[in-house]
Write a structure and sequence with these properties.
heterodimer; A: Transcription Regulator spoIIAA; 3 helices; B: alpha/beta; Metallo-beta-lactamase, Chain A; 7-stranded mixed beta sheet; 14 strands; 23% strand; Phosphoribosyl 1,2-cyclic phosphodiesterase (chain B)
Chain lengths: 110, 320
């Protein structure tokens, strides 16, 4: 899994790329937590841009929960943006779309 | 091996109300579209061909009780939920036909819904029956005696006529019981619960109910992947959605369909039985969860072999 960060007005955007699975979920979580801290320092919201993520196992989904707890501790709103069709379906089956805002565009994720 | 599900509901027995049955009958009549049936068998064949399970059937409402046939022919029974009463009635008929009156119970844990069937288990009153109760808990006998104290039940435990003994099992040990190889592993649940793995020759069944796989201890799942390794059937706690299990119902000691699929796929298991259904779920809710789990398995499979996803119901039999 690769990770990059972008900043736009009011938002720090984490951009994972590749796969989040049994081997990479801990790195995924560490990168999210670092980015949440950066968002908190900047007074931004945190947007996880899923557009270039090919696969996410249930451990990746559950890492999102841990990251959300970290975001809540720091008062950082967290949203998921641009999941591919497959991931959008998994977010619905797991009901994660009930606990995270999920948007088709990074711009409207707040 | 043959696995029979006598009770599949979690937490509390439930029963379909009159309005639920009326609705099923009405929908079946509408679906039949005026078709006529010569007799009941023809009508049953029509229903059997109906793909929508919830339309004409129910998943049932008895709490946890699963029978595993195999080994030396003695009864092997996981948990004593309310489904045990009916198993007891059926056991009398099988014993009358010559089956040995030897019963090996394996208790996941001692919560009410997992032991409430024992005071109604007919063979416990049979002086010719032998009952061995295996548990990871050293206080299993205390729990069973306590639920038959006078304040809770009219017949005391000592009024049971069968020869009853208790054995405490420990993890990391393989036992030979009832002609099966048996192992156990502790699970996260209030007062701890235990999963069991039963092997008969080259066949294996894992029974893992009332098990939470916590987000803050995901490394622990490697133990379960090893425990489920290459099993022919894994019976797993799928009481909640993943979102529920990590938010408002975190620490409630239960798991989700998503985690069950992940564990079974990683373990190379052949079949998963969704189990310990939420008591507030209707048949339609459970069927929807089954459909979604089949779809998730497909989405999550990658290059791995297909994992068959079954949805347990009271009366289901799975031959391995």
């Amino acid at each position: 899994m690769e990770w990059s960060i972008e900043t736009v007005e009011g938002a720090t955007i984490g951009c994972p790329q590749g796969r989040v699975d049994e081997e990479s979920w801990e790195l995924f979580l560490a990168r999210m937590n670092e980015t949440i801290l950066a968002a908190a320092a900047a007074g931004h919201r945190f947007v996880l841009d899923l557009a270039r993520l090919d696969y996410m196992s249930s451990r990746g989904l559950r890492a999102l929960t841990i990251a959300k707890r970290e975001a809540d501790v720091h008062g950082v709103p967290m949203a998921l943006a641009r999941p591919n069709d497959r991931l959008r379906e998994i977010l619905a089956i797991s009901r994660y779309d009930k606990i995270f805002p999920v948007t088709a565009s990074r711009d409207v994720a707040d | 091996m043959l696995v029979r599900f006598w009770g599949t509901r979690g937490s509390l027995p439930v029963a379909a109300r009159a309005a639920t049955i009326e609705r099923k009958v009405a929908r079946a009549l509408v679906a039949a579209g005026g078709r006529t049936f010569a007799d009941e068998d023809e009508a049953l064949a029509y229903i059997a061909a109906e793909s929508d399970f919830a339309a004409a059937r129910t998943y049932g409402g008895a709490t946890t009780c699963v029978e595993i046939e195999g080994g030396d022919g003695s009864f092997v029974i996981c948990d004593m939920g309310s489904g045990l009463r009916e198993l007891g009635v059926d056991a009398f008929a099988r014993c009358a036909a010559g089956k040995p009156r030897e019963f090996h119970f394996f208790l996941s844990h001692l919560h009410w819904d997992h032991i409430m069937g024992f005071p109604f288990f007919g063979p416990a009153f049979d002086p010719n029956a032998r009952i061995v109760i295996h548990a990871g808990h050293a206080d299993a006998e205390e729990a069973l005696r306590r639920q038959q104290e006078e304040i809770s039940f009219p017949v005391p435990f000592d009024g049971l006529r069968a020869a009853i003994e208790f054995r405490t099992l420990v993890p990391d040990h393989t036992y030979e019981i009832g002609g099966l190889k048996v192992r156990t592993i502790p699970q996260y649940h209030s007062h701890t619960s235990y999963a069991y793995r039963f092997e008969d020759g080259d066949k294996a069944v894992c029974f893992s109910t009332d098990a939470e796989h916590r987000v803050d201890d995901m490394d622990n799942e490697r133990l379960f992947e090893a425990f489920f390794r290459d099993a022919d059937l894994c019976i797993c706690d799928t009481m909640y959605s993943l979102a529920e299990s990590v938010t408002m119902k975190a620490d409630w000691g239960h798991s989700s369909n998503i985690v069950a699929v992940d564990l079974c796929q990683a373990a190379g298991a052949r079949r998963l039985a969704l189990f310990h259904h939420e008591p507030t779920y209707s048949d339609e809710d459970i069927e929807r969860m089954h459909r979604e789990t089949i779809r998730f398995e497909e989405l999550n499979r990658g290059e791995r072999p297909k994992l068959e996803v079954l949805c347990a119901y009271d009366g289901l039999e799975v031959a391995l």
